[in-house]
Fold these 3 entries.
Entry 1:
Amino acid sequence: MVIDAMLKSRPISHDLSQRAVNHLIEVGFHDIRKLSESSWEERAMALKDGGYNRYREQGATNLGEMVELVNDKYAGDLNNLLKKAKNDRKKTRQLIKEIKGLGDLGADLFLNNVQSVWPSMAPFLDGRSLETADKVGLGTDLEVIYAELGRDCVSMSRLANGLRIVNIVVGVLMVLGGISQFFPASMSSIIVGVYVIIFGLLVGGLEFLPNVPDYVYRYASFLFSFLGRGGFYIFVGSILLHDNVLRYIAGSLVGFIGLGYIALEFIPSIEPPSNMRETDQGWGAEQV
């Protein structure tokens, strides 16, 4: 799970990082003993074969240093880290971040997954997943969400990972729809395509940031409300609906998701996302 979090915390596609994780498992590098016996070159080659080309050298170094830390400090067993943290999530997060290559995002991804086998870490959702949970009406009270899941730590882990995928999928659909605008090419279609690709990278890219930058809240606050994000998705979806089958598919899916967000706006039992309320307050304070 540390390897999974380490590779997926890099700014590359989820598919590529998952393929790399799967390949490391195939060659046995999920076994710390085999990973300990590997050379830097073997680790780098395994990452390359898994499609993790851009960060393979740094990744090979981080994997080696991780093995050394786990062997030296925890006798080759991360369960000893949990014991040292005395089952405290905050202390566990602090200790796991001692592994190079695991920043704030990596630590969150690790906790998302490890709660399925370390129940004392549950309930946990990383910040971005918690925002998405709020948007779809689950709220932000982790204990309430955990109770709704029957206090099942495995289900909590699945929810944590699944919520991030929703916005990533929308981002991918936008990028694909934008690329399709280039065929056949015209000045207007190229301009529209570039904009849609930028929109898709923004929507999907936000899921890879440990914290959303203040300027995103300021200049794109519509992304953090049901009505705003729904309207945005419908707008992008509508400009994709022409000429090409891929455009119709991408535009329709993005548009339908947008309609779902707008519907949530008019359900009284579901409050607006807390991050939108915070944005409003911060903007007003700056204006004063």
Entry 2:
Amino acid sequence: MTLTTLRSISDLEGFDVSPVLGFVPLEGLIECLPASHVAVEDLVRRPELPEAMRSFVLREKVAAFPSNLDYTTLTTVQLRRAMVILSFVAHAYIWGNEMATPLDELPGQLAVPLVQIGDLLGIAPLGTYATTVLWNCRLAVPQVGWTKENVIIDFTFTGTEDEELFYNISARIEVEGGRVLTDLLSIALAVKSLPLEGAGEALASIATHFDSMREALKKMTEILSETSKMDTQFFYWHMRPYFAGWELCSKGVHYKGVDAADVFRRYPGISAAQSSLFQALDILFGIEHHSAYLTGVRVHMPHSHSRFLEVLKKTVDDSNLQTFVRDHDDLSHRYNACLDLLKGFRLLHMSRAKKFAVDEASRPDKVPFGLAKTKDTGGGAQGAGGTQLVPFLSGLAKDTADAKIPRTGLDVVSY
């Protein structure tokens, strides 16, 4: 039976969402595809992907890649790994290595499985936030947990510690955010079953959830601040180019063997806006962005996650969460404190985006490549998804502040 509303935390699993890890798969990644699909693994081995890109042999490896593999025999976890590998290869194939000319066609041996696996997993057939972060991280020692040193990133474009750290940070933010999601959904579900006046026992439990959320939101910001250890110049001019989607190709990208010869697909690039986590938190907090982009980008999320957002919205609309919190001064204080922390996270994200992208685009004597554009060619100001970067991120922070609940004139919303 297809759920149209959430009744308990256990319902999360039906949408591939974990009460513990949020949108990061609870079962983790596998380290290798079965022998029947070793050819997929070989695309990123001997040499590994970064070296194959640097040495101009990647496109030769793709040309020799078999087109007769049967992907319908793979499990969901195996399909995710195959999608991660093929999408990394696709972006490297199209954009080249800064010296090779970018292409506008994926050959059939890449295009067909990308579309087939994309259909099976319910996700766009190119690199996404899911393929670079959610499905690209695992734990070295599961018992140790999601510490920086214990998170393994399987694939990067550059083979550098900076790129590994970038995905590592994103993965750990997702896990901490999973705690916020579970706590906030627990509150919404509890409120749904209570009268507006509430009950003492329930209020104490709800207050505890808000306190837990506050700690997790603080941790998310601490993790994001680790981006200060990264080299801004390397990020913008050597990593970011490969996050570009097909919109930056003059005509788009033709998927040979899938589409008619005159059809070119124009997908946006890999972007943190494709994270289902923050859209879920927005829904739960009642934060309204009025952004067609945020709705449209859901096709780049796994279908189970975008479907979850739809069901979550219906659940929250039925719960009267904001009304309930507004009627309890102690809860509204905690609620607003969480929103302040989320706003702070978004402002830090905006400042990092300005430093790593907008400011870097002004660096002199650079040659545009992929998503790394110079300022005079529109670089820096535009995000991977095509938004105006700083105004977009600033707007997210302002919308978050606007969702705060005024408290009898003592806590008036300000920004």
Entry 3:
Amino acid sequence: MTCPVGKTVAIRAAATALDPARHVIIYLANPTIGVRGMLTHIVATLGQSLRSLMSGVGASDAQGGGV
């Protein structure tokens, strides 16, 4: 059990201070989904699919265009 120390209040205050034109707030309700589930949810919220984004990764890396 977590202690009520104001984590949600702090997150909400920080979120309202962000420029909505530059930042998208994404709520992840299930903390047990893992990294791939989290990435899938984030990418879907932004209007893409993880599969479409990952399909170009190998070609980009092969050409030296990786991050």
